[in-house]
Design a protein that fits this description.
Blueprint (H helix, E strand, L loop, with lengths): L1 E5 L6 H15 L3 E6 L13 E5 L13 H16 L3 E5 L1 H15 L6 E5 L2 H4 L5 H13 L2 E4 L2 H11 L6 E3 L18 H4 L5 E6 L8 H14 L2 E6 L5 H11 L5 E5 L4 H5 L4 E4 L8 H8 L4 E4 L4 H4 L6 E4 L4 H13 L1 H18 L2 H20 L5
Helix pairs in contact: 1-15, 2-3, 3-5, 8-9, 8-13, 11-14
The structure holds ligand GMT.
The site of ligand GMT has 19 residues, from helix 1 and helix 4.
């Protein structure tokens, strides 16, 4: 098949999944055309059958806000026409599903079917804003195929956007367990924790929904019980608040702000524990990647995270906001080598058995086939 993929190129789970999917599909012999306004952050190196079509978002003095949605619609339209795409797959509904729908309308009966993958805040936060809800619902319903990355997200879409449940297929996110593994990457342990401390890690885009100040507070408690260092990977609006919390708690010496890293597998391979105390998390890709590296996860039982992290087996999920419980669970794990070993092995096993890329990429492949067959037969979604 010739498959078009649109995603945000910036640091984040939806772009990471879309890129891994495109690479996986190309490895399976498909031709993949990324349509994005920059090179997706995990798309590096030359790969056979993978193409990038950059969306030009031109500035003009009249526009205070350049019309990205229209530029993307034009780019999807042109790519679909020129490359004769068989299917168009957009990641994150806003505004990608709308742009793709416009492109379909422009192609007037000769358009590839559209698959939209819902990732998280497109449904749970941004799309719920009263000014966005109607247009988000419209664009989701106009997609011939709809997937959600967890059952939690499907339920939220059904409840909050009145999308019929049977129209949404749950396809979980996935991880390349050959790349994300403890023994795989060069070991940075000596640099990150030169005193042999435990390494506690958090990877995110530092938005309020990630509750980074809770990460800091949980770590401050862990550090009182076990010699440990906190490695923070990523960047975003909450970074300065997090840095202030670190200063207030007087733990600067044990907290490393590394900023954004594309090769996050190299860092996760050193993690002894991963913290994800998010307000809501439709899936928690970073937690899955940590698990693939054998790191147990401690976080809040919010959103779809319980579908990814087996509680009491590969990590501990406590009620949202229960900083003291999370601290106790994390410190207990790090202080008990036998339990840590058991949880780490279960984490890796879960990633390999349930979320391995080689299992999930073919699910998308057959989903595309069924959406195409329905479209060709003129069956309405
Ligand atoms: O929806 C977002 O916040 C953006 C998105 C991203 O690009 O980082 O994150 C969501 O999609 C990821 C990939 O499917 C999921 O692993 C994250 O859990 C999800 N984020 C939230 O639900 C907050």
């Amino acid at each position: 098949m010739k498959i078009g993929i649109t995603c945000y190129p910036t640091y984040g789970g939806s772009g990471a999944v879309a890129t891994a999917l495109g690479i996986g599909l190309a490895e399976r012999g498909h031709e993949v055309h990324f349509v994005s306004y920059a090179q997706p952050f995990r798309l590096s190196g030359f790969r056979e059958r993978v193409y990038l079509h950059e969306v030009k978002v031109d500035r003009y003095p009249l526009f205070e806000h350049p019309p990205y949605m229209l530029s993307l619609a034009a780019a999807i339209h042109d790519t679909a026409l020129r490359e004769e795409l068989d299917v168009m797959h957009v990641h994150y509904a806003i505004p990608h599903a709308m742009s793709a729908w416009i492109a379909q309308e422009m192609l007037d009966g000769d358009a590839p079917p559209l698959v939209t993958t819902l990732h998280g805040t497109d449904v749970t936060l941004v799309g719920l804003d009263p000014s966005f809800r109607a247009i988000t619902r419209f664009s989701i319903l106009r997609s011939q195929g709809i997937t959600a990355v967890s059952s939690f997200l499907r339920e939220a879409t059904v409840r909050d956007f009145e999308v019929p449940e049977e129209r949404i297929r749950v396809v979980p996110n996935f991880v390349d367990t050959a790349l994300f593994r403890r023994e795989g990457a060069p070991c940075h342990r000596q640099v990150l924790a030169p005193g042999g401390e435990k390494i506690v890690m958090h990877v995110s885009n530092f938005r309020p929904v990630k509750r980074v100040p809770d990460v800091i507070r949980i770590f401050a408690g862990i550090r009182k019980a076990v010699p440990a260092r906190l490695v923070l990977v990523g960047d975003g609006p909450e970074r300065s608040r997090a840095a202030a919390a670190v200063r207030e708690l007087g733990i600067e010496d044990d907290v490393l702000f590394l900023g954004k890293h594309a090769a996050v597998h190299e860092l996760l391979a050193c993690a002894d524990l991963f913290l994800m105390p998010s307000e809501s998390e439709s899936f928690g890709l970073a937690a899955l990647e940590a698990m693939a590296c054998g790191a147990p996860v401690v976080g809040y039982a919010a959103g779809g995270l319980p579908e990814v992290v087996p509680h009491g087996e590969a990590g501990w999920l406590v009620p949202r906001g229960a900083v003291a419980d999370a601290t106790e669970a994390a410190a207990g794990l790090l202080a008990d080598p036998a339990q840590w070993q058991r949880f780490g092995e279960a984490a890796r096993r879960t990633a390999v058995e349930r979320f391995e890329a080689k299992q999930v990429v073919p699910i998308y492949e057959s989903y595309y086939e069924s959406v195409r067959a329905d479209a060709e037969a003129g069956r309405k979604p």
